[in-house]
Amino acid sequence: MNYITLIPLIIIILINKSCSYPCKDSENNCLKCNPLTNLCFKCKSDIFIPDENGGCVQIKKCSIGINYCEECDLEGELCKKCEKGYYPDKYGGCSYTEYCQISNKGKCLQCDDNFILIGRASDLKFCKYKYSEDFKNCKELNKENGYCQVCEEGYFLNKGDFKCSSTEYCSESIYGICQSCYEGYYLNKKNNTCLLKNGIFQYCKQSLNGETCDICDEMTYLDKSGNCSLSNFCSKSSNGKCEECIPNYFLSSNDNICSNSKNCLKADKDTGFCLQCESNNFMNTKDLQCKSNLEDNEFKYCLKVSNDLCTECIRGYKLSKDSKCSNTYNCLEAENGKCIQCEKNYYLGLDNKCSYIKHCIYSDEYGCIECEEGFYYNILYANCSEAIGKFENCKRSVGYYCSECKNNFYLNLNESICIDNTQKGPFYKCALTDLYNEYCQECIDGYYLGTEDNLCSLNENCKISESENICSECDDNYCLDLQKGKCFDNDYLEDENDKIYYACEITNKEGTKCEKCKNGYEVGENGYCVDSTRCLEKKDSECIRCIEEKSELGNTYCANKVFGCVPNFYLGCLRCDNILDIYSCTECKEGYRKTFLGGCEEIRNK
After folding, report:
1. How far apart (Å, rounded) are the C-alpha atoms in residues 415 and 401?
2. Which of 31, 28, 26 is nearest to 9 (CA)?
3. pTM, entire model
């Protein structure tokens, strides 16, 4: 054939393709059109082939080195051997993939019968066998990515390999047999099912008989009873926690790991070596064993021992010069955790601690806490000075001003002197006065300052005290029990006996019922403070529904069988009958459901 005469024909075909003439059978060298795409599906003769746009182009003469061809056939028309990585197609081209029927510049356009063209139009495509294992029981393919996207009825799409399996929650299967399951599920090989991990199978990956585990999750180990444990060297476990160890191993008390040492708090789950000993035990680095640091006086209060010498002490103790643990720094020699001799220029106090301050009997790392009798600690000069003159009853001073008095004395801040506070009067049990010595502004430990009378008494949250033990008026949000003379929180209930104090300001003299309620409440028939002003519906004299009202704090109100309508943090709450937790909900309104936090959430249609 004279190829020169074909040039006009090729130009016409290219023009037709570019102009996108509608495809018609037996026209423009096309034998068969695709009715769906209106493009040519089969060309007139073997010298014409469909191109990637659906038209017909003439097969060019085979040329070595062109379009990845290495060797032509005897007629010189078709490529017989392609470059490495390319395969001859049936129309003489070279394709990136096997089983290709038509290709153009290495890209496959059409596959052999029973093969599917996989890949996006802009990418290199390949031919895949339509009856391959990947497509078994598949109803709908994703041809761009080459995997199944919808399975036939009764089959489930694997999460991992996109194959169809008869097993739900399967992530990988071979010929319909599941090999592994979704996260949170284990494989029961006996009946080829993926089951939720729980109980003895909490850390299981695969079970052969469905009764015991055979393969555990990573970082867990299989014990002799067929359960998975977080600990190696474990012989019996339950829910992932080890209960018994193999011989010569011991269960650590903190993490249920098998350790090679007794009295171990935390162990390495892979090696069994102890990482941290229980309290009152020290770690011997020679054999990594835990030994008591109380029974053995040589290593008392020691945390780590190396080469038979203590190298680290437990918290609160320091290593002395003789490699023993002492309760203080600057210790030269210790015995049973107490210092018996200090370094040079340091003094041993009554607490067996070393202080650089002479006459100090109790100290810490920051300085002296208390001086011996007849001395007071001067913070400014960091020494124990003789307590004479205005410092006679002073315990601590800042330079020339006393800042803290001894027990049974209060500090007159105006004159910086300590005065007896054991006498009844405005400064009884006082620790510190105001600058002008007019009233007490701080009480000794165990006593509380009245917010109105500025007197010290045993009554916490009291405004005015009738005596040291009896309160006559309480602070806001507290109820005065007239019988006990004490103040109780009227918003928080610790137990059932505190019901009388809820929303109450003062009880009767017998302390059996409330006599006066706070604003918005009234004394009910039961003697408790009841809020009936917000009640919307009653039944048998009991409020069963409150009005919907929302405050600035976001509270609503719900019905309580004891207190009427009480504030509640949750919208949609109908009842809140838990006496000790009235801010949680007992029953939600219609359209709401209870949450595990004790509130109500709206049910929304999905």
Report:
1. 9
2. 28
3. 0.45
